[in-house]
Amino acid sequence: MDETLFTSQPIHWLAENDKNDKIVPANILDWLLELGSMTKRFEQHSQQVTVIPYLECYVSQDKLSADEVQSLPKSQRYWVREVVMYGDGIPWLLGRTVIPEETLTDDDQQLVDIGRMPLGRYLFSRDSLTRDYIHIGSCANRWVRCSRLRLSDKPLLLTEIFLPESPAYR
């Protein structure tokens, strides 16, 4: 995936017991551990939240990171969507969604066609959404979180890098 928005620098994931305000400032930890829609959270800090897709395509497993491979079931193909999320035209977040093809059944096939719709607007409108975990880490002096979510008990992985202008840092 040479065309990725995501940095080639490694993400340093924190151990579960490091999720405290001695390591991560309390205001940032509150954002990283948000259980609801990040889109809705951003909407509380701006007039308009927009998403610009950068990459949307199917890839084979060898195009995923080791963390992604470990976190998702084996599949022939994975739908990858990378976006920049803006608040009032200011880039606040990089998002990368990786979805095994087997997750994209029934109504959830719509995920490949959401275009400029924020992922959270789609996911959090579903009654069948659950979250397995949130991992937090850092990369190039930016805070990162990764969630494995389930739609109708089928997994997808969402990694979010909070950009410097994000309200998470205020």
Fold and architecture overview:
With 170 residues, the protein is mainly β. It has a seven-stranded antiparallel beta sheet. A hairpin with a 2-residue loop joins β5 (129-139) and β6 (142-151). The protein has four helices and seven strands; from the N terminus they run βααβαββαβββ. The protein has helices at 26-32, 38-43, 66-71, 119-123, and strands at 12-13, 49-59, 78-87, 90-100, 129-139, 142-151, 154-162. It is globular. 14% of the residues lie in helices and 38% in strands. The model has no long low-confidence stretch (mean pLDDT 92). The chain has a single domain (12-169), classed as 3-Layer(aba) Sandwich (Chorismate lyase). The relative contact order is 0.22.
Summarize the SSE layout with pairings.
Blueprint: E1 12-13, H1 26-32, H2 38-43, E2 49-59, H3 66-71, E3 78-87, E4 90-100, H4 119-123, E5 129-139, E6 142-151, E7 154-162
Antiparallel strand pairs: 1-5, 2-3, 3-4, 4-7, 5-6, 6-7
